[in-house]
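Annex B.
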Amino acid sequence: MNMLSRFTANCVLQSQHKTVFNVLPIICGQVRSKTKEVEKPKPGLGIQYRRIVHFKDKYTIEPLKITHLAGRDPVTGRVVAKGIGGGIKQKYHWIKWERDGPTEGAPQEERVIQIMDDGCRTAKIALVGVGDELKYILATENMKAGDLIRTSKFIPRIPVRPNEGDAYPLGALPVGTRIHNLEKNPGFPFHFIHAAGTYGTILRKFDDKVVVQLPSKREFAFDRTCMATVGRLSNINHNKEHIGSAQRNRELGNRPRSGLWQRKDGRFGRKIRKLPPMSVIPPPSPKAVEPIKLTLVL
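39S ribosomal protein L2, mitochondrial: predicted structure tokens.
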């Protein structure tokens, strides 16, 4: 009986120890672990990892403060976009993405007060005044201070003859007009064509739709009541600008690559090797002699 009792006691102790040892790593992992499981975000999903703009409750032309992210996720602090970093400190000018005008009668006139550069976008911006209101809009190619621009939501029977900077519905503009700041749906903020030097073209009209060719050369049919601004956006030579130096590239907010990879002689790069020695091209080999087949039956 003593042997049997000792055997059962040992079995009970071993089972208790196993349960304790199985639980201990879980407890230690919860207490001593310094890592935290986070879901790393992916770039290219409509999230900007360059800056956070601190907007106010009401629209204002006062420059807004910016928090630079340098390619890092604002929550986890991990680098998501590697090519972003540094750059000259900028203030953000709040663009008003709506052009409100009368639905009947004469169009509303607005005066351009100033044309200025904005470090947070490629195209130039214009300070516009209408009544007691001041607002920023995107400047067109030939816009200058003192110009009068018109805004209307009325669609006449005969297309209007617009000037550069005017805002009209697509149904009021003639075919072939260059436009930018195009609404995706009626009543929504301007969604398309914001980059410097770009423009869309009105191709044709059918039913209640207007076909517009975007800068990507793709054609889309929009509702005829969608608002658009006439003209080509300013700073047309932006894509031809020569940076010229690494310091200038850093001022623009672009972080260089690591420097470990080089095309020809660097780490994992293409090596420069000696050419192989000269080889003589041999003459073609003679054709093999065809065997003679005898058909005579012996």
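The chain has two helices and 14 strands. Residues 95-237 form a domain with the SH3 type barrels. fold (CATH 2.30.30.30). Further annotation is deferred to the next reporting cycle.
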